[in-house]
Amino acid sequence: MRDLRFDNRFVRELPGDPEDGRHVRQVHGACYSRVEPTPVRAPKLLAWSREVADLLGLDETDLRDRRFAEVFGGNALLPGMAPYAACYGGHQFGSWAGQLGDGRAITLGETINPQGQRWELQLKGAGPTPYSRRADGRAVLRSSIREFVCSEAMHHLGVPTTRALSLVATGEQVVRDMFYDGNARPEPGAIVCRVAPSFIRFGNFEIFASRGEEPLLQQLIDFTIDRDFPELVAAEPDPAQRRVKWFEEVCRRTAVLIAHWMRVGFVHGVMNTDNMSILGLTIDYGPYGWVDNFDPEWTPNTTDAGGRRYRFGHQARIAQWNLWQLANAIYPVIQQVEPLERALAAYAEVFEAEDRRMMQQKLGLETWRAGGEDEEGSDAALVAKLHTLMQAGEVDMTLFFRRLADLDPARPTISHFDAAFYDEARRRDVSSGFEAWLKDYAARIRQDGGPDPVRRERMNAVNPLYVPRNYLAQQAIDRAEQGDPTGVSELLEVLRKPYVEQGGREAYAARRPDWARHKAGCSMLSCSS
Ligand code: AMP
Ligand code: MG
């Protein structure tokens, strides 16, 4: 396998932990601890992303090299790698949780690709670090498959995300109690190599604020701007102003991110501030889920079943709450309340504008009739009515919007959406309301103008046909746990073109089957991973 070029700015420019070793500790005055992956018994490459390999300047021959699995399974380092675990804190489920840090993620280094782009390579599940607390630093195959598949799927869907290069089986067992009910069992372990320009989280800033380490806080802010937001350095010469603009940009990116999640029906599941990327990327795929039947109340995370803090329809508000925590954290450096509050207000405006724009695209409308949800004749009211019907009627979100593009405006009928209904009784409950809505919509697109084929094509470019539905991922997991990992690559292959109908792949576009409705891994997931 060829060598990669490394330029490890994070460890070179920021202070590290003076203490060595993996023993669990509180790390003060440092952004990271140097720690190497713990070798595994039998690393075996199960799946990879050719797009990410390409990004890094790697090809098929590199991937087929035995050394690839050794490096990306944590058994060997390439020259120039400088592994470390980052120190961060976070607000978990609304409360400050203190120091968390990379408990099982280890960054190998920052590689510079042939085009000069910087990509951080990070192994997840690479063994204990000083931040592992009471856990083992490992990851199970099922959660690794979910992270690997979903992060690449998100990229192909056009949603900002961290990427995944490889999925490597460790040949070791990991013991997990999936439902925290005393039934711990051994499961196969795996390691994903994640790739992103930066894995810095809101929590990396919060930890220094919580400890009153203000010089370090300022250093990390300025480092982040310099390395990861070069456009701000060019645009704003004054460092104080630049920090404000940086926070505004973080707010803007986060707003765009959440609007995309709402567009495709993604529920993150654990929007703690340690799981919020400073670059506005989807990060840390855990008990996430994909909305099958449209339901703003739905949360896939069993740990969140009581409060539903991170439910589908609440994600925009939670992101703003998280940005408030980041604002509080950086305030000692910014020292002005007003620009921070303005940026937080702008977050809400950007989210609303993006969410509306994306909904307009989903509906295939060229124009938008102004007015609030309660105003008869407004498009906001049209959307609100649709959401109410979809929720009450248990309508599959993905299939509904995809079928909508093919609706004949001259003959709008509910039977066009047969494939999207889960329950006969629910369908009967909403059928007259649904028919009425379809008539309104048909009238609306006739008035909106534009030829049908053009509208259809535009709608199909924003309404995916294939998303990594929870049950599809679970089927690939079941097969992989039986020793056949090919289902992972097959699923990824379909998800590489989520907007293009693929002949013979109908099964991947089907609504959730009945057996998956209440099955673990398909509609509910625990944090155990
Ligand atoms: P998460 O909820 O997955 O974002 O994890 C929260 C914190 O727990 C992070 O600091 C993780 O690094 C840590 N963590 C989760 N699972 C493990 C594990 N198996 N071993 C060590 N640390 C872990
Ligand atoms: Mg996390």
UniProtKB/TrEMBL annotation:
GO molecular function: AMPylase activity; ATP binding; magnesium ion binding; manganese ion binding
Domain of life: Bacteria
Residues reported in the UniProt entry to bind Mg(2+): 275, 284
Residue numbers binding ATP: 101, 103-104, 124, 136-137, 194, 201, 284
Assigned keywords, A-Z: ATP-binding, Magnesium, Manganese, Metal-binding, Nucleotide-binding, Nucleotidyltransferase, Transferase
Stored InterPro entries: SelO
Active site residues per record: 274
Catalytic activity: L-seryl-[protein] + ATP = 3-O-(5'-adenylyl)-L-seryl-[protein] + diphosphate; L-histidyl-[protein] + UTP = N(tele)-(5'-uridylyl)-L-histidyl-[protein] + diphosphate; L-threonyl-[protein] + ATP = 3-O-(5'-adenylyl)-L-threonyl-[protein] + diphosphate; L-tyrosyl-[protein] + ATP = O-(5'-adenylyl)-L-tyrosyl-[protein] + diphosphate
This enzyme's EC code(s): 2.7.7.-, 2.7.7.108
Names of required cofactors: Mg(2+); Mn(2+)
Role played: Nucleotidyltransferase involved in the post-translational modification of proteins. It can catalyze the addition of adenosine monophosphate (AMP) or uridine monophosphate (UMP) to a protein, resulting in modifications known as AMPylation and UMPylation.
Family: Belongs to the SELO family.
Cross-referenced NCBIfam families: PRK00029.1
The name this protein goes by in its record: Protein nucleotidyltransferase YdiU
Gene that specifies this protein: ydiU
